[in-house]
Specification:
Order of helices and strands of chain A: HHHHHHHHHHHHHH
Strand content of chain B: 15-25%
Oligomer: heterodimer
Shape of chain B: globular
Number of strands of chain B: 12
Helix content of chain A: over 70%
Strand order of the largest sheet of chain B: 6-7-8-3-9-10
Radius of gyration of chain A: 20 Å
Number of helices of chain B: 10
Number of helices of chain A: 14
Structural class of chain B: alpha/beta
Radius of gyration of chain B: 19 Å
Shape of chain A: globular
Order of helices and strands of chain B: EEEHEEHEHHHHEHEHEEHHEE
Helix content of chain B: 25-40%
Largest interface: A-B, 39 and 40 residues
Number of strands of chain A: 0
Structural class of chain A: mainly alpha
Chain lengths: 333, 274
């Protein structure tokens, strides 16, 4: 609050520059070498056909989608952590990932994915929505307020059920379906298109704006619900809305990129440990750092073992875990 | 006497899913400019009554009026600008500086967007000074001792700058000095014109400093009135199901003659006293 006023803008500007640099680096590296000048010109629609095709058709949408996914997952995780007052909450805490995985694996195993490329994301999103609705239904008895502890347990239970359903589907899958289902669950941005980017970008912009409007309410809710209510927050309304926004972000991100772990857990933590827990600063910083992190992770995933690709979840975990350990040990938590 | 701040006509309050009423037939008023202590054994309904006063929960039957209007009908932010609250126990899982916690008391005045101004900074500094917490205001809230944290939360309620203050067991976990200082602070706020309601287990401090006590017993109001009139040995022993004695401070000094509530301990290891 006092520290915020002078320090917020430079921090946000720094993270924005970091993201721009990460995007440029990520678009530049790949199987075909292209100079930075050509990249920038191509992004503005200038250059030879081959460069334009690679930059604007292949790399740019993938990098943009990575940025949007990273931002969405990080914001989603941050919101769940605040609402559940649990630093271990991540975007998939309410069963979003296993719901989405159940939907997409079902679609793969039933060969529905041959209908069109939109089938798997749709099935994944529907699975995620069903899981979240089920979690809320389980967690809220009639006449009772929404209790974070019950909600966490309901998320665990629905997640466990989803995992069992996935195993059941995989048992009956042929080798090809099995392979593509497992690959989906590992998460990948290889299927990125501008359509996917728009599909995630628009809700992300809306959700981020709304969440920023609730920044002070989230500060208070992170301290306690009675405190928040006594300080003027309409607790139930804010809680339901923010839960819905966070679940929506996680659901769409999972639908377009599969299950990518660690972004939603590590990034909000990193920002909190560095600069504190004021959500007015935390929200923009978390979104920017999440985006940067996933852009770099994806660039590594597609270039480190070229011409093959590493699962992006491996990169996020390999980078996220040591980083997290260093942060935890550096500060007295 | 001027208009009461609160008028409680609670026929019953039952928690959702509860099997019995937490508060039953409590009819009372809370006068402005007084220190009112809510007393009673654990589970007697004190904290629930405090939540009813704030409009955080609404009577199942009956009503609680704040300033003539149903407490639950006040817009939450408007209520927060009028009544400061220190709830019982809260857990923050994230790093916050102590001053940031106090600054939260300004939120109902700032709304979602407006930044903290020089007036807010002054109010926050004054609140920190009132609880003698200025020196650790820059430290992380989760690194403070229990008593320091409690004082920071009281400072947060002070920063709300309401005309009234409700404190739910604010001295739990405080040592003798800080507990007495807290009560003296409440007393000072009352002399400055505020209305303070404090839930407490410290019968001696309540007897010495409260203008009025409400003694709860299993959800009902056992007695209400000036501490000297109602905090008798017979009433307290019955309500707390333990023999207590009310003795007079032997003096000398300003404490001379004030009531001291002392539980009888009796033969250690036996139950002779009962």
């Amino acid at each position: 609050m006092t520290a915020r006023e002078p320090a917020a803008l430079p921090r946000i500007a720094f993270l924005t520059l970091l993201l721009v640099a990460a995007v440029l680096v990520a678009v530049r590296i790949g199987a075909v070498g292209i100079g930075t000048g050509d990249i920038v010109r191509a992004l503005f629609g200038d250059g030879d056909e081959r460069t334009l095709a690679i930059v604007r058709g292949l790399r740019a949408p993938r990098v943009v989608l990575a940025a949007l996914c990273g931002g969405a997952l990080a914001l989603s995780g941050m919101t769940f952590q605040a609402l559940l007052r649990n630093p271990l909450a991540d975007p998939f805490i309410l069963g979003v990932s296993s719901g989405a995985a159940t939907g997409s694996v079902a679609a793969v195993v039933l060969h529905l994915d041959q209908v069109g490329p939109w089938v798997i994301p749709t099935a994944a999103f529907l699975g995620a929505v069903c899981a979240v609705l089920l979690v809320f239904r389980v967690a809220t008895a009639p006449g009772r307020v929404l209790n974070p502890q019950t909600l966490l347990l309901a998320g665990v239970i629905v997640g466990a059920f989803g995992n069992a359903a996935i195993l059941l589907f995989l048992t009956f899958a042929d080798v090809e379906s099995f392979r593509s289902a497992v690959f989906w669950m590992m998460g990948s941005l290889a299927g990125a298109t501008w359509q996917y980017a728009a599909l995630l970008g628009i809700p992300l912009a809306i959700a981020a704006t709304l969440l920023f409007g609730f920044a002070r309410s989230l500060n208070l809710l992170a301290v306690g619900e009675a405190t928040a209510a006594a300080l003027g927050v309409q607790v139930e309304r804010v809680k339901y809305l923010c839960f819905a926004l966070a679940a929506l972000l996680a659901g769409i991100a999972v639908a377009v990129s599969g299950v990518i772990g660690f972004v939603g857990l590590v990034v909000p933590h990193a920002v909190r440990l560095l600069w504190g827990s004021d959500h007015r600063l935390l929200i923009p910083c978390t979104a920017l750092l999440g985006a940067t992190f996933l852009v770099l992770a994806d660039a590594t995933a597609r270039t480190a073992a070229a011409p093959g690709e590493l699962p992006i979840g491996v990169i996020t975990a390999f980078v996220g875990v040591p980083f997290f350990i260093v942060l935890l040990r550096r500060r007295d938590v | 006497m001027s208009e009461p701040v609160w008028e409680a006509r609670v026929a019953a309050y039952r928690y959702p899913g509860g099997t019995q009423d937490a508060v039953v037939d409590v009819d009372c008023t809370i006068a402005p400019g007084q220190l009112t202590a809510l007393l009673g054994p654990n589970g007697a309904g004190k904290s629930t009554f405090a939540r009813l006063l704030l409009g955080l929960v609404h009577p199942t039957r009956g009503d609680v009026l704040y300033g003539g209007r149903s407490a639950g009908a006040w817009p939450r932010e408007a209520m927060a600008r009028r009544v400061g609250f220190v709830p019982q126990g809260e857990e923050t899982a994230f790093p916050l500086r102590a001053r940031d916690v106090v600054a939260m008391g300004r939120y109902p005045h700032l709304g979602p967007w407006r930044a903290e101004g020089p007036d807010d900074a002054r109010i926050i500094a004054a609140a920190l000074a009132d609880v003698e917490a200025t020196e650790f205001a820059g430290r992380r809230f989760d690194s403070l001792s229990g008593g320091e944290r409690q004082r920071i939360r009281i400072a947060r309620a002070l920063a709300q700058q309401g005309e009234a203050l409700v404190l739910d067991e604010p001295s739990a976990g405080l040592d003798v000095r800080h507990e007495v200082e807290l009560f003296v602070l409440c007393h000072r706020l009352v002399r400055a014109g505020r209305t303070v309601v404090i839930v407490t287990h410290n019968l001696t401090l309540a007897a010495r400093l409260a203008d009025r006590v409400l003694l709860f017993d299993r959800g009902r109001l056992a007695v209400a009135g000036a501490p000297r009139d109602v905090l008798t040995e017979a009433t307290l022993s019955r309500v707390y199901s333990w023999p207590v004695e009310v003795v007079r401070h032997p003096g000398p000094g300003p404490d001379a003659g004030s009531p001291l509530v002392v539980p009888r301990i009796g033969q250690i290891g036996g139950t002779d006293a009962i």
